[in-house]
Amino acid sequence: MIKSFRSIRHNGEFLRDFNSLLRDLRSLSSAVALTLMFTFTDAHAKAPNVVFILADNLAWSDTTLLYTAKFHDTPNIERLPKPGVLFTKALFVGSGHDEYGDPGPPRREQPEHDFETGIMRGRVNPYDGQLYVCGLNGWNDNGRAGLTDGGIYRVRYTGTPPRMIDHCEVAFNELRIGFNFALDRESAKELASYTALQWNYKWTGGYGSDVYHPETGEVGKQVLSIDSASLSLDGKLLTLRISNLRPVNQLHLSLDVVDASGQPFVEDIFWTIHGIPKP
Predict the structure, then answer these.
(1) Largest Cα–Cα distance of the chain, in whole Å?
(2) What are 9-41's pLDDT values in tens digits?
(3) Rounded to 10 degrees, what is the CA torsion of 247, 250, 256, 258?
(4) Model confidence over 46-105: pLDDT tens digits?
(5) Pick from 235, 233, 215: which is nearest to 225 by CA?
(6) 179: buried, middle or exposed (CB in 10 Å: 19+, 13-18, 0-12)?
(7) Which string of DSSP letters, residue by residue, matches 212-259?
C-alpha cells in the first residue's frame, strides 16, 4: 500500500506520491487503531502490545496525544493508549554506556579534531577500513563561527597512539574516569583542573528547553564543588569525589590535566545520570 521513499525518488514524482503516501498513512492509522482495539480487548493475550511510532522530526505539538496540535488532529493516535499505558519519556544512550545496574549513565565526549562543519554521521568504509564523516553547518552545536555549509571527510589513522578516555562510571558520590594513558599525579590531584556544571530540562509542548538548576528549579546551571581528586597506582583511573552528586539530565565535566610525559590533555564529558548506586 505504501511506496518506499527509494521508489518515490527514483520515479521523480515526489510531490504527487508523497501526498498519496500521507493519505495512505492516514488510512493505515485508522486500520492500526481498529486492529489494536480488538487486540487490547483480548483477555487471553499472553504479552502486552506495544506501539512504537517513529517519524522524522516529530514534535510533541504534531499530535493531540498530550497537547493541542498546531497543524493536525490525531484522534486515532489518542485512542491507542486509553486501554493501556502511555510512555512519555525515553532514555537516549550516547557514545558510551557503563552500567552499575539498571539504568547506566550515557555520556558524550568531544573528538580531538575540530571539523570545518558540523559533524553527525560517521561510517567505516569496509573497502579501505577508513572512517568517513559528513555533516552540515546546521549541526554545529557548539556555535563555532565561519564554518562551511557542509562537507565529507576521511579520518585517517596515522599510527600515533591516541590519548583518550576509555571508561566513565558513576559511583556513590564519585565520578570515575579511565584513560588509556597515565596522568601526571600532581596535575590530577589539582582541583583547579576540573570544572563541573549540572542542569535539568523541562518536558513541554514547545521545541527545546531552558536549563534549570536541579535543586532550586530556577533557570540556570548549578556549579558542582569537587571535594577531592585521586589517581590509581597506574595513573589511568581518576576518581573525583563530589558530595552532592545526584541524578540529572546533564552534567558537564571539563578536564584540563597533564599526562605523565608533561603533555596537556583537555577534554569535555557530558553525562546523563539516571541513578546513583548505593554505598
Answers:
(1) 68
(2) 344 444 444 445 445 545 554 444 444 444 444
(3) 60
(4) 666 777 777 766 666 677 776 666 667 778 877 777 777 776 655 444 443 333 333 344
(5) 215
(6) buried
(7) B-TTT-SBSPEEEPP-EEEE-TTS-EEEEE-TT---EEEEEEEEEEEB
